[in-house]
Amino acid sequence: MGDRRRARGECRRRRAAVRGLCARVRQCDARRLRAGAGVGAAFGTADGRRRGPRPALDGRRGVPPDAPARGHGGGPVRSCLIADDHALVRDALAATVAARWPDAEILQASDFPTAWSAAARAPDLCLADLDMPGAAPVEGVEALRAAAPAMKILVVTGSFDDAMMLDLLARGVHGFAPKSLSADVIGAAIALVLAGGRYLPQRLAEMQMPERHFAPAPPPRLLTERQLEVARLMARGQTNKDIARSLGIAPATIKTHVAQVIALTGAANRTEAAMRATALGLL
Prior knowledge:
single chain; 283 residues; alpha/beta; Rossmann fold; Arc Repressor Mutant, subunit A; 2 domains; 5-stranded parallel β-sheet
């Protein structure tokens, strides 16, 4: 009876995570429409119609060979593999990557065998779910590592098993992000992983460092001067609007900086982020 309740609870959590990501896709589409680009500019033709069925694996963004790579923290991303068996989740993650690294080639896979084939192309980054057809989670991720040893792997999933995550960390995975996170926080988690850090749920970080109150944080250089300014004002208890007035920038920009500070310090919320930054001597 207990196993059945746990299974039902897990199903509800996964459905909630997928609904959240679907809502983010709709928000991204709405922003593109307001900007005049149209939904089709991201996933189809200019008038919003799709160019026929999309394969499970594709190079989403065709950019000129001589186009410079651009990004926002953590270094450039030339190509990114997104592996998830839900198309809406893949689209939401692709929109997050494209917003930060517009020149990155996006590869998609809906199962582990397709992901292994794509990994042979040695992308810089892989955003992978754990529960996909074709292999068990640990075996599937281990094969991804074998196919592209230099590729950074951030697991984006709605299912968390502490023992499995510790096992995957020992096998070289670079972090875990819940599907319930906002696009800004997932983007900051990607930047942290690309910069050589690890993005971990708080409880997992505490399991790795049982004698320390705070989980390991990235070196201070990963926080920009603007992020440090925002973190200092967060530590004083200022709201996003207060910080925006103090620094003379838009509240929406402050919201993004706050999300990045939270992610880069490995915190669960703004209060904890300020505490960690203070304890680590960043402020």
